[in-house]
Amino acid sequence: MIKVDFSKSKVEEEIKKFDKNRVQKVHEMIENKTGLGNDFLGWLDWPENYNKEEYAKMKEVASRLRKEIDVLLVIGIGGSYLGARAADEMIRGLYHTDKVELIYIGNTISSSYTKQVLDYLKGKEFAIANISKSGTTTEPGIAFRVFEKYLIDSKSKEVAKSRIVAVTDKAKGALKQLADGEGYQTFTIPDDIGGRFSVFTPVGIFPLLVAGVDTDSLFKGSQKAMKDLKSLDNSAYHYAVARYILHTQKGYASETLVSYELQMQMFNEWWKQLFGESEGKDGKGLFPTSCVFSTDLHSLGQFIQDGTKNVLFETIIDVKHPQEDINVPTNEQNLDGLNYLTKNSFHKINQTALEGVLEAHSITGGVPNIVIEFEKMDAEMFGYAIYWFMKAVAMSGYLLEINPFNQPGVEVYKQNMFKLLKKPGY
Ligand code: PA5
């Protein structure tokens, strides 16, 4: 479902010559779970080993809620919301016509945004999926207080009980205790799966079920990827090796993930978290950035084409089959001179833009380009792609000799903030 073209990466030969023993050793470290952070490799087999009973229960709760609500508030930050949002937008599009809307909160401390969501909910039927593995994260914690109170005040304790679902650790943590105390439905985030690797657990699956996404197909895609990427010679590892060479041997500091589909913007955001939080440590790692073309060709395109050299390379996601396509209508007067495009569909023009930009950036501009072909934008493709990138980051992180599964740097700001807010004990 994914094909990668390295012909414009400027390191095609180096990839072929890269030490196969090194890749094999890392592959064994991943598969045998012997590397750094090996207690967080539960995601590897999850597409096959996921809890089937819990999945059935999630379907039951989601189908009841779909009948009752207009909005599901997804409360979570980082790995606790980005996967669901990436899937929601990539699969359903930005202006879907499904009855249930997902709104994301607890991913910011912005008072304006939080109040705007509160106001938007007036007169709407809503439920809450409160997602936090630790149960102690500040942003979702304070958002939950606000919206739980609003649900109870505007409806009743009884309604809140039937409309609040907690996705959290199976036993420990404040959220589990709170949910059990109030009688809220809980679903479990497995101990050995970290936030940014948790899309296939209830973290991603429960909100997507409420959104009416075909999660069976999503699992099917992840299972396919799991099978395809068991072998040593796979495209996710080639991608990891290419990035490693561009970073450590050619000196590139940043990778830009480029999509030509607006509904892939949150997929880019998910990818940035996966690679940024997994690799950016011990003074190492590529700085992950993203663009949507042709939109950003009218802003960042200038820099990529013509700005400081040898800083960034591009990884393009080329979606072969769009969800929809439309034609450019003929205009008799043709004042804008665009009638020459009427034999083309929008997708054809978009694909031609991709071809032209690829040539301009890589040949004229000298910027390395890796092209990743996605067949389509549906649930199966999403499941496949997520697993593919997770396997790539495991290889990539271990090649850099860091632990891809922790995030010690994130703690520093929290400690400072707690001290300033006078949290007891800080
Ligand atoms: O990937 C990660 O582990 C993080 O981004 C977490 O998901 C994020 O910090 C939220 O943590 P929690 O789910 O404990 O609230």
Automatic annotation (TrEMBL):
Keyword Methyltransferase: no
Biological-process GO terms, alphabetical: gluconeogenesis; glucose 6-phosphate metabolic process; glycolytic process
PROSITE patterns the record matches: P_GLUCOSE_ISOMERASE_1 (PS00765), P_GLUCOSE_ISOMERASE_2 (PS00174), P_GLUCOSE_ISOMERASE_3 (PS51463)
Catalytic activity: alpha-D-glucose 6-phosphate = beta-D-fructose 6-phosphate
Location in the cell: Cytoplasm
Pfam families for the chain: PGI (PF00342)
GO cellular component: cytosol
Protein name stated in the entry: Glucose-6-phosphate isomerase
Source organism per UniProt: Spiroplasma helicoides
Organismal lineage: Bacteria, Bacillati, Mycoplasmatota, Mollicutes, Entomoplasmatales
